[in-house]
From TrEMBL:
The keyword Transferase does not apply. It holds the Pfam family Oxidored_FMN. This is 2,4-dienoyl-CoA reductase. InterPro entries: Aldolase_TIM, NADH_flavin_oxidoreductase, OxRdtase_FMN_N. It comes from Roseovarius marisflavi. GO terms for molecular function: FMN binding; oxidoreductase activity. Keywords: Flavoprotein, Oxidoreductase. It comes from the Bacteria. Residues 18-348 form the NADH:flavin oxidoreductase/NADH oxidase N-terminal domain.
Amino acid sequence: MTHAETLSRPLSLPCGAILPNRLAKAAMTEGLADGTNTANARFETLYRRWGAGGAGLLITGNVQIDRWHLERAGNIAIEGQQGRAATDALARMASAAKAHGSKVIMQLSHAGRQTQKMINPTPMAPSNVPLAIKGRFGIPIPMSEAQIDAAIAGFVNAAQVARDTGFDGVQIHAAHGYLISQFLSPLSNRRRDGWGGDLPGRARFLLDVVKQVRATCPAPFILSVKLNSADFQTGGFSEEDSARVAAWLAAAGCDLLEVSGGNYEQPRMFDFERKDPLASTRRASTMAREAYFLNFVPKLRAASADLPIMVTGGFRSAEAMASALRRDGIDVIGLARPLILDPNAARALLDGTRDRLDSLDAPQPLGPGLFGPASPISALRDLNGWATVGWQFEQIYALADGRDPNLSLSALRALLAYDKTEKRAARALVRDPIKE
């Protein structure tokens, strides 16, 4: 069997939904919404383009369930009852994504303490543990039992809206340091009630969300979860914790588990690191096989043998992708940055016309050496890393506007433009939009 044939095999999920192939467009934050945090024509253009690109599964960027707890001011948010204009825009987005046969699922999230100050200076979180990042984030307020119940209900409500507007499923975002990930980690969850303490207590929020979504949105609606393999922080959510939670998720009705890792304090999902005792744990063998989190899969398989697994991050060659599917227990390959540079990259892999994808990292804005991405000064490493992320955002904006990516854009210009865009979007937020 050729690599292309391996990637082209359909996958039947536990809920009965069938993915037409093994490639997925992983979630990437879009930042395209206006001050009302509703979908618009730019989302429709973007997902029509990605849908035509051949990936069997498209996962949206994080849709927030609370407008006071956004990851970015330009997020879509589904909070409470939605007006006709908002649901019609979501339906057009879903229809555009599915027009060429892809399945599309909506990623649902709540930023918790990772809400920026310019959006909410006092966000809710499991405990009042602030991020160890100066300036951008405030000290969080511990959630009451009533607020926890309301947040769980918010995830369920958003899932129902996704189902009713034509999405094939949802992905519950329990990774990258957002609210559910904060509940899972003993570093950010210091509660001593039934929502904290040992792992069952810390996992209760996630499991309640999954069980209630599954009860209200039965098969063939796809229920996926994005879970950290680890936080990569001493004393945080560990691989052993993750494997146990994965087994509980499988029993609760999860159809697809996406493996990731890191958070804002240790952003391994973006493939750059801050100083930390566990920051250099990526093994050379894993790097050679391309995927960032592949070495965790055997532990995951031992804990939940039948749960379909998706791994995102680092895959570039058809050979490595096919090998992961054949030998490493992976069911779905997640692609992100390569689909920004070439929205048709998945189709090229599937028809065998390409055997390797590009993932152009933006030119570093501060130069090599001391000022570059390997600088011994963590602030400069961060600046280089976030400039690259800003460069990727600028390319998403181009696709959403019907243009091709601007590969000549410098990372410094992209970073400045991104910062300006985010501040303008935050100022434009309408806190209580009129519901039509």
